[in-house]
Write a structure and sequence with these properties.
mainly alpha, single chain, 125 residues, 0% strand
């Protein structure tokens, strides 16, 4: 790595100088470390994957039948229980991943808005 492309950085150091970001934005905030946004982005992806898995479970239960009985899986209590638990888990993950946002809000106006609204209620087929 050429020395001209290296910027000395520590966790609490903000760089304001001749970096491309500093020149573009004129704000030392953009020269800082990544901080908590990485965790929020990863959490959002994980929650989305959880909801995708629940959607696949619902689609599977709606289109497949139980062996031997021919009963649709969506109507069987065991699949309804599993689907309900999957919805609860995904909804809990979504609520937990957004609940911390209020604690890092930087302005009183942002903090006064309160927690994020709950995700929409979802129903199994």
């Amino acid at each position: 790595m050429p020395d001209r492309l290296i910027i000395e950085q520590s966790f609490n150091l903000f760089h304001s100088g001749d970096t491309p970001g500093s020149a573009l934005h004129g704000n030392p905030e953009y020269g800082g470390v990544f901080r908590g946004f990485a965790e929020g982005e990863i959490a959002a992806v994980a929650v989305g994957l959880g909801y995708a898995a629940v959607d696949e479970l619902v689609a599977h239960a709606a289109t497949k039948k139980l062996r031997g009985t021919g009963e649709p899986k969506a109507q069987h209590i065991d699949f309804q229980r599993a689907t309900g638990l999957a919805f609860a888990t995904a909804d809990s993950a979504a609520a937990l991943s957004t609940s911390g946002v209020g604690s890092i809000a930087t302005t009183p106006a942002a903090r006064s808005k309160g927690p994020s609204p709950s995700p929409p209620t979802r129903r199994c087929a």
